[in-house]
Structure prediction request, 206 residues.
Amino acid sequence: MGPSPRLLETTLKSSGATESLAATADDLRARALRLLAGREYSRQELAGKLMSKPMPRPARRSARGNADDFAYFAVEVAEVVPPTEAEVNALLDDLEKRKMLSDDRYAEMRTRLRAPRYGNTRLQQELAQKGIDRDTIAAVIAEQPDELSRCRNLWLKKFGQPPSDMNERMKQTRHLASRGFNMRVIQQVIRSGGAANEDDLSETTT
Prediction:
């Protein structure tokens, strides 16, 4: 008695699906390009994404049952493991060479989007966590409006009036500090009530 139609159907579907999972370098590249199509990534961030997801390896055939047994069928067994660091680095090197991946471009984009809401300390910490080097961080932050004016704009939007007492002053201070603004900048903004005519700080600590 041969295999049942249902068993054959299940076996063929299972085998075909497994065969389609056989991974190549193209699979890794395709995933990287899908991610980059959504937004910019730093090299370190993209590497983490690629390394975190297992990749099916080429399948190997495994026979189960007996050829004379109705339960006999062959399956393709795929090993699912993360890509190696060497595989990921080779792909990232190629993407950088093709200008499809750029730490400079990522840092510029992220800083431009977040600078209106965060101070320099916060921006520096976030970029460093993404693997951006110090020189690039300094350069992209220098391209943004100065920290004092950004802090003032945020204070006007959030509060709009000087604190009425010490509790309110502490509340405003904590909010701006949580956004990564320098304490001297925060004090000047609150002290001036958001006025832009007070002498600006020539520089802030980083």
The CA atoms of residues 108 and 139 lie 9 Å apart.
